[in-house]
Amino acid sequence: MTMMKSLRTYILVISSNNNFKLIKLLSIMKQKFKKRCFVSGVVFSLMLLLSSFSVAELQAQNIVSGTVTDSQGVPLPGVSVVQQGTSQGTSTDFDGKYTLRISSSDATLEFTFIGFETTTRPVNGQATINVVLQEFVESLDEVILVGYGTQKKESVVGSISQIKGQDLQELNAGITNVEEALQGNLPGVIAINGSGVPGRNDMQLYIRGQASWNGSGQPLILVDGAPRDIDNIDFNDIENISVLKDASATAVFGVQGANGVILITTKRGQKGKAQLSLQVNSTSKFVSKLPEKLGVYDAIMEANSSIMRELPHSEESWTLYRPVAIADKFINPANEEESYIYPNVNWSDVLLKDMALDHRVNLSVRGGGDNSKYFGSLSYQTVSDIFNGTAYDNGKGYESEFSYDRFNFRSNIDFDITKTTEFSVNLGGFYGIQNTPGNLNLVTNAIYELAPNAYIPVFPDGAFGRDDADIFANTNPLVTLTNTGYTTLNTFNINTDFILKQKLDFVTKGLSFQGRFSLDNRSVSRQSLNDPGGDAQENVRYRVYNGDFVERIESPNGVNDFDFVPYQWTLGTANIQDGTIGRNLLYDFSINYNSTFADKHSVTGLVLVRRRETGTGNGFLRYREDWVSRVTYDYDKRYFLDVSGAYNGSEKYGPGYRFELFPAVAAGWTVTNESFMENVDWLNNLKLRGSYGLIGDDSGGARFEYQKTWSIGGGAFINNGASNTRSPYVFYTEANVGNAALQWETAVKYNFGVELGLFDNAITAELDFYGEDRNDILIPSSQRAVPEWFGASPPAFNRGQVEVRGFEIVLGANHTFGNGLNIFTNVNFTHAQDLTIDREDPELTPFYQKRAGYSIGQPRSAIPGEIMGSLDDLYSSTPRVDGQSFIRTGYYNLIDYNGDGVYNSAFDNVPYGFPTRPQRTWAATVGAKYKGWKFSVQLYGTQNTNRSYSSRTFSNQIDTFFVHELNYWSKDNPTAVRTQPTFNFGQGATDPRSNFFDGSLTRLRSVALSYRVPNKTCEKLGVKGLNLFANGNNLFLWTDLPDDREFNSSQTQDSSFRGDYPTMARVNFGFNLDF
Amino acid sequence: MKNFKIKKLVLFVGLTFMFGCEEYLDIAPEAEIDITDVFATFESSQGFVEEMYNLVVEYGTSGHSFQDYTFGDDTYRSGQFSGQVDRGQLNLWVSQKYAYLGKNTHQGKEGDTNDSQARRRPRVWRGSMTGIRKANMVLANEDLLVGLTQDEKNVILGQAYFFRAFFHNEIMKFWGRFPHITKVYDGAIDTPRPDTYKEVALSINEDYKKAIELLPVNWDYEEYGQRTLGNNAGRVTKGAAYAFQGKNLLFAASPLMKFNNAPGIDTYSYDTELAAMAVDAFAEVLKLEQAGEYSLAKNMEDYKKVLWETPVNTWPGLAPEARELIFAGSGGSSAGQTRAFMVAGVPRPIGQNLSGNEMATHNFIYQNFGMANGLSIEDNLSGEYGSNTYDPSNPFANRDPRYYAWIFSDRDPISSKARSNNHKTAKLYDDGNNEIGPHRRGRGLNLTGYMFKKFYPEINGQYHVQSGNNIASRFNGMRIHMRLTDVYLMYAEALHVSKGATTAPASFPLTAEQVINILRDRAGVPHVHSKIVADNTKFLDELRRERAVELSYEAHRWMDIRRWGVAHEDKYKIKTGLYFDKNWTFFKEYTIVERVCEYPKHYWLPFEPNQTQFYEGFPQNPGW
User: Is the peptide bond before B600 cis (omega within 30 degrees of 0)?
Assistant: First the structure.
């Protein structure tokens, strides 16, 4: 009855208070937290939410109480205290105190707590029992998240890496996106970053490389058991992150786990009084690395030098040559007027702030009573703009900048409905407000492409600068940033889980049932402030100087040049875009079994059936159905066996091919648990494990691709009387040719691992070798080797083959000195290399141009010969199929690879370099702990990767010259490998690899320092605990890349040459307060 | 016992799920349409055919906002595909974003037939491939057209035959001989490439014959056309089928196709048999003109109605007195694109910020736009045909009236309403040194000294200027795929090479000489000199010059100089501009670029290399 009451109360709270608060908070959010007074609101609403829970009162009868502490005397909250042989139990509160009613005075109490040795104490009539729990040195009993459950680390035989949310946060506080934080922290996970747009996820994640060209190779990510995005989770909500890498670990996810799985669990309640924590941090961020440009004078000198070299080919370039006296005016203008005509602008200074500040506040509460446990959290995070647009008032009454504000909420509650029934309700989500002005690529373009002498960005009278010919690439970035309106995207996302666990010990001991229902909703509303100007002209006044330095004013038509009145901007209505409404519905039922026989035989079993419906916009729902089972057996903690499998269906395949079984088996042997190892004391852990399994993947191809389908819609524009309207006959189109025999991609994955612990785990090592052979890879319609006179997208079919081989090494060392100083280090290294075996290359394609035999995404280029240094070289160079008449000295000869006497890019380009996705990543962490202090440094690096970046030196004949282009070949610099950029005549300036950059890098990924204020000081302050922390991310970068982007994001147009929103280095300060 | 219990439980849970296990993942039933639905009614069948209209690529508006569509010796621009053609880099068509010949659209996509902007629809290569398949699907499923009346069925099949042939011709224009694909491919392909252009053209001719049989003269007269009454000018008709039938045959008869990449090409040598067949096809179009279906514009004032003088969003070439439109692509659906096309001949500061700048070359104008007396400048200077009227100290004087109608030269008035003084008149002088007019030589400006204005609107002599007299948005300039003037010229060419200048064919009482003179009458130019008529090759040259002028800047030129086998000659390779000072004290031709063009390599676009690697029997074009 009490239980029902509290449940009802909860629901009431959710439906009234919480919603009301939510709405209110959202409306506060909408005002963009002008006054930043929300913290009190957050606290208030949390209080309201939680005040309905009360710890049940206890009656004093056969009562034992006491305090549980760790070896250093720190109270341990949440320790489970149970009277052995009964179901009587409680757990300690946040002061480590417990009170337990026992049925007899000669009972024995059992104290268990994760990470500590389980301890038992006979009561013997005592009323007070204080216990000191001993920590595991290296918590072998650490619980590891596995698919649909947990396992003790010692019995895990699959390949799994795990990190605690707290550890991740320590290194990455200040980073908004969890995916970004994963970089370097989980062996086997390759995480690369493409841009720093506030509120946008520009990460690519790969687990152990990429084994298919279908899909994006991204892993399956589950939050609390359901597929969800993690880029918008608040760090403090994360309990654990686990990465499942091999077949046995991922088999239960069947097809979806083919690229690996990342599991995240959020924090849950613990029994005890409500523990309120406040976490506040502020981050100052600055641009990590951008390509450096020469100053205007030097750039003009380079331009002149380039013009001199191209004159024989382009006489007209001479008109572009500028005498020193003119170049000099750019740096030494005689007067103010000349400084406008001969500008010298550092576009980075104009556009970028030296630093920007981000803030985050998180308030969480954790606690629980006898029949319920809860975790609740609210947080607010603001990500500010590194562009300095707001410093320039557009005078129109609106400000536009890139920004992101996010409000996260979470409430995870577990109810013990009966002694054997637990019901959990999780509610989590966020509301994010993202602002984006204009075209991002036109803003970053100024940093990457615009010359220092292009024009004055804005004149003192408010007129903007512009180049004479109004070249798109030279668009004034300040106008784009501040005078072209902006778009606001409001994302509202809510995830809910309802989970019912029922113990079925009455059927057989160790049997339980779990049912789950999850419903996620997301919608994005878009609102735009439109400021389009008129007559294809921005809504501003430009002052333009032409080639003869004659000034003119340009503004939209219809208004007087000298009395320009801006058009009124309009604020569009906020519309929820249909395509953004996403809803996921998931439900599953599972039976779990877990029992130990005769102390030595441990058996677990799992059978699960899951269905999922996903919908976006008004499209047809997507369905998925999975049948999963797993049996594990361990004999005396020495021999382990794990058999699992999934039976999956996919709507992409037709009858007969739709369902497939994907089994995996893994076995392990803990040598150190054998009796013959008992006397070996230097080796305390040696475990061998291996796995082998079959996984499927259906990420390739479109929905229902097996079917021949037709579509209706569209019309022809052949109305001579109204050519902008469609004719009445609606198009019927063959939408998909169809292939009834489409089937799963299958992957055979295997893994062999060794785990070592030496000298009481002071040194640990883990070594994994793995491989994957993927077969029947879908050759998507767009990549079929079928001549285009097929006339339609040819049907996809299964044929491709890829293999991946690699290894991971994790080394750890940990030592505590007598004085309590603890030092630790952790190094991980991942190598993953893929090889395409078959990809339906056209039969007559020469082998070196086939995709088979090379990595997925293998770049190709012409083979440069020598730089042609003389006319002799020129005349003896390889003839070219194109542009033969333009080849010239100072640039590369090209190798005629196929020996047909002529260089033709179609036949003579060969594989070169590496794909963008690095083959090798590594991270090394070193740190120390002493009393309340903790300090760590993490380095991260990648190797065997290339990125393409086109330096826009002199593009459109502007004086942009990048420092990385400086060391070019000339008569006086004959050993250089780069070639001189051309100013006006690019033909024949061959340098096939000039856009090819070695993407390897090493970065000082993190420096973290934290200090836990001693308990005594806390008491004086009136708080329970206080933790201060400071950390820096990405503070140093060593790389040959011109900027700090690990790939060119396709989310920003032209990011391979116009750049992207800069990535950041960050310094973060904050505190964590428990009260 | 325990095990039994577990099993029972598992079984129970399992059973509850078993229902609809397979069906759960079945295709959503509402999404299914069957092929029988597609061809069930006239409406749905026409809907299937209708998409082919939007696969027809309208060259003038299917590139990008900076229209790049001529590629002949008639214009110059350094960038985009124009520049690549000049440099002989025809293989770069594949990645070309800004021309109608790119494989993908400027956004890197395959193109969407439903897009209102022609530049976002499939381009020539993809569009034609899709169109051929579509046409074949109609023809392969003739049996399903049971719910249609005979007339309806005829017009569905007629359109399919027409489009199958038309799309093949579009490919053959640029890539040459190509297999006549007459089936719907469903698996592996091993269709060989035919050895000659002629055999494909003759095979395709059969498609045109069937189309002619099945198509109506005018949809407005037919019952099925009533639904679109008054809006049927865009639909294919008997006349269109005759015109393209003739064009297909004339092209196949032309020297390039006749020599079939063999050395020793002779520009005066045609396949006369094919040419005679072409004459008969064109004659049928001329008969339709006599029957009142078409009418040739009779004077230069009416001629504007064929080119641009029609309200925005309506098609030119349909006014009763100038009803030249036989078939047009559907590019005119986006006013922004047609506007960019209309202003393509003038530099950005005058025309439009984001338009292209096709610079009319001096070589083309000098060689083709002749004098008011009807002679070419060359013939004028020779003195053989009368007194010379060409004045080297004022090359802009005494020229063919069409020169003044379609070309801006220096000092020509543009508009007195222009906000900038610079744009009130054309300021195209450039002494080759430092005296440079504001419309000359800078970025986005003119290099040649001429701007073409064939589609450039004007009201009462006041031409469009983007700031001051922004009138381009009021009209709808359009490049018509097939218009009557073209038919006249092709008729004359085919007739002349098969029967001579002064003989009429059995099919129509009009000689080649008469045809040219009809066009000259319209332009107000004297008839072709009798000495020229008497000389077979000279008359062919004159006929080609007439074609060059009449169809100037309409994207026919590149095809013409290739099929005539002359593109590799210096006269067609060297693009020039004119230097002259502000005061016109001197005029000097200078070379802007010498095109890289060799016979036969640069006469055909190469196939994308992988397309020739799928199977033996589909060789690449020569030289690639």
Answer: yes
Q: What is the DSSP string of B446-506?
A: BSSS-EE-TT--EETTEE-BTTTB--GGGB-----SEEHHHHHHHHHHHHHHHH-TT---T
A684 and A661 in contact (C-beta within 8 Å)? no
pLDDT in tens, B313-363: 999 999 999 999 999 998 888 888 899 999 999 988 888 877 778 899 999
For residue A733, the tally of other CB atoms under 10 A from its CB is 21
What separation in angstroms does the CA of A48 have from each of A17, A373, A557, A1074? 7, 16, 59, 19
Nearest to A787 among B133, B476, B614 (CB): B614
d(CA B136, CA A784): 21
Q: Which residue has the tokens 């008035």?
A: B413
CA distance B495 to chain A (A): 32
Please give the Cα distance from B471 to A99 (Å, whole number): 89
User: Chain A residue with minimal CA distance to B26?
Assistant: A651
Q: How far apart are CA A74 and CA A951, in angstroms?
A: 58
From A537, A723, A842, residue closest to B314, measured CB to CB:
A723
Helix crossing, B272-290 with B238-253: angle to 10°?
A: 160
Residue type, B408: F
Q: Token pair of A326, please?
A: 């003119």
What letter does residue B290 receive in the DSSP assignment?
Answer: H
Q: What residues does A803 pair with on adjacent strands?
A: A773, A835
Distances (CA, A) of A838 to A842, A849, A853, A899: 11, 13, 8, 26
What is the end-to-end Cα distance of chain B in Å, rounded?
A: 79
- Which amino acid belongs to residue A1069? F
Cβ–Cβ below 8 Å for A987 and B13: no
pTM score: 0.76
Q: Is B229 on the interface with A (CB under 8 A)?
A: no
Interface contact flag, B314 A507, Cβ < 8 Å:
no
- Dist. CA A1034–CA A1041, nearest whole Å: 15
Shortest alpha-carbon distance between residue A566 and chain B (Å): 17
Cα distance between residue B452 and residue B405, in whole Å: 9
- Looking up tokens 């408010």 gives A462
What's the token pair of residue A381? 């995070």
Please give the pLDDT value at position A572. Answer: 87
From the DSSP assignment, how many helices (H) and strands (E) are in chain A?
A: 16, 52
How far is it, in rounded angstroms, from Cα B87 to Cα A881?
11
Residues 6 or more apart from B167 whose CB is under 8 A from it?
B52, B55, B127, B128, B129, B131, B132, B135
What DSSP element (H or E) covers A163? strand A160-164
Classified as helix, coil or strand, A489 is strand
What is the per-residue pLDDT across B511-542, written as a single tens digit (0 to 9) for each?
999 999 999 999 999 999 999 999 999 999 99
Residue carrying structure tokens 């307060």? A1073
Q: For chain A, how are helix, strand and coil distributed in percent, rounded to 5? A: 15, 45, 40
**What SS3 class is residue B323?**
coil
Q: How many CB atoms lie within 10 A of CB A120?
A: 12
B272-276: long-range contacts (C-beta < 8 A, 24 or more apart)?
B272/B497, B272/B498, B273/B498, B274/B198, B274/B201, B274/B249, B274/B250, B275/B249, B275/B250, B275/B493, B275/B494, B275/B495, B275/B497, B275/B498, B276/B494, B276/B498, B276/B499, B276/B505
- Could you tell me the pLDDT band of residue A22, with boundaries at 50, 70 and 90? very low
Q: Chains A, B: CB contacts under 8 A, how many?
A: 245
Among B34, B113, B612, whose Cβ lies nearest the Cβ of A731? B113
What secondary structure, in 3-state letters, does B394-450 show?
Answer: CCCCCECHHHHHHEECCCCECCCCCCCHHHCECCCCECCCCCECCCECCCCCECCCC
